[in-house]
Amino acid sequence: MLCEFACGARGTFEASRTMIGPESQMAFDVHGIEGALGWSLERLNELRVNIPGGELERGYTTVFGGDRFAHHGAFAPGDANGIGFEDLIAIEDHEFCAAVVEDRPFAPGFEEALDYAAVQTALIRSAHTGAWEDVVPLRQGVSAP
To answer: How much is the pTM?
Structure first.
């Protein structure tokens, strides 16, 4: 999918359940004029960061997960000690239950789900029309062909 964000930035999204190579990548890369980020589910506890600052600082630096990040230390104290996918699910469950007990909103919620569905609807419309399609909030009643 090709896209243009409201701020004017452009992006691409790719997905394949049949490609050869990555096992479970679920990755993202963000490239900008002031730096870049990269992350992959296959390397869950590592964030690649590139913020240029001089000739000797070219390339990516890896930021490892660790107990300096919220909840991480409850599962694996120390720096660069990885947590697993199931630990993340336990953290999500904890945060959801805390939001219910504290009577505060939890994100992502239903509104974010609607936003996600609006993007999918625009993608389906674009596949049918072969043209750029605007993302229209679903509450405005636009449906896929």
So the answer is: 0.73
